[in-house]
Amino acid sequence: MKVKVIPVLEDNYMYLVIEEHTREAVAVDVAVPKRLLEIVGREGVSLTTVLTTHHHWDHARGNAELARLRPGLAVLGADERICALTRRLVHGEELRFGAIHVRCLLTPGHTSGHMSYFLWEEDCPDPPAVFSGDALSVGGCGLRLESTAQQMYQSLVETLGTLPPETKVFCGHEHTLGNLEFAQKVEPGNDHVRAKLSWAKRRACVQVHGEGGPGRGPGGTLQGAGKLRAGG
């Protein structure tokens, strides 16, 4: 399983997930379809499906144009408000793309119909991955807009928090530095936050100088994504 990280807009991420044996590809959160199709063409893969985490424009606005350009494309998600949706998914549903398995995880909080996608590949030593949209980012999470605090807590702790700790996290936005700087202000004595912030600053410096990978946030492990704090 190969994941192409595609930065778009101000701080969004789109993703192209490639099954390397069949050359089938699945896109996650299509905001800029023409940019996505450039990568599809460069990789020489067949794009069959779009997985959308939630209905907000910066994650789903490209679905309609992409569906027009690629007739027969499946556009999947959990919320009927998602643009160009062809089938609505439910919590716990599993999909298959060649050797890649997808488990659909309903993670309300940011929106009521937010779905995260947990992917793993058969007979592969690589760690699994979760595409968490705006439910979970590095050092933080999305704003709670449509769900209760209890629902959001369950999404983060009971659903995403129980995935294998080695799971790679591919989030919807690059908010790593801001999240960790805020966390340090809240807990100035937290050694974990201090170390993670130092890591993020080094990664940011590497990115600015053009020496690194896709960015500061996506691709880190669930274990390193940050620790949830809850209080009254």
From TrEMBL:
<keyword id="KW-0479">Metal-binding</keyword>
<dbReference type="GO" id="GO:0046872">
    <property type="term" value="F:metal ion binding"/>
</dbReference>
<dbReference type="InterPro" id="IPR035680">
    <property type="entry name" value="Clx_II_MBL"/>
</dbReference>
<comment type="similarity">
    <text>Belongs to the metallo-beta-lactamase superfamily. Glyoxalase II family.</text>
</comment>
<feature type="compositionally biased region" description="Gly residues">
    <location>
        <begin position="210"/>
        <end position="232"/>
    </location>
</feature>
<feature type="region of interest" description="Disordered">
    <location>
        <begin position="209"/>
        <end position="232"/>
    </location>
</feature>
<dbReference type="Pfam" id="PF00753">
    <property type="entry name" value="Lactamase_B"/>
</dbReference>
<keyword id="KW-0862">Zinc</keyword>
<feature type="domain" description="Metallo-beta-lactamase">
    <location>
        <begin position="11"/>
        <end position="173"/>
    </location>
</feature>
<dbReference type="InterPro" id="IPR036866">
    <property type="entry name" value="RibonucZ/Hydroxyglut_hydro"/>
</dbReference>
<dbReference type="GO" id="GO:0004416">
    <property type="term" value="F:hydroxyacylglutathione hydrolase activity"/>
</dbReference>
<protein>
    <submittedName>
        <fullName>Hydroxyacylglutathione hydrolase-like protein isoform X3</fullName>
    </submittedName>
</protein>
<keyword id="KW-0378">Hydrolase</keyword>
<dbReference type="InterPro" id="IPR001279">
    <property type="entry name" value="Metallo-B-lactamas"/>
</dbReference>
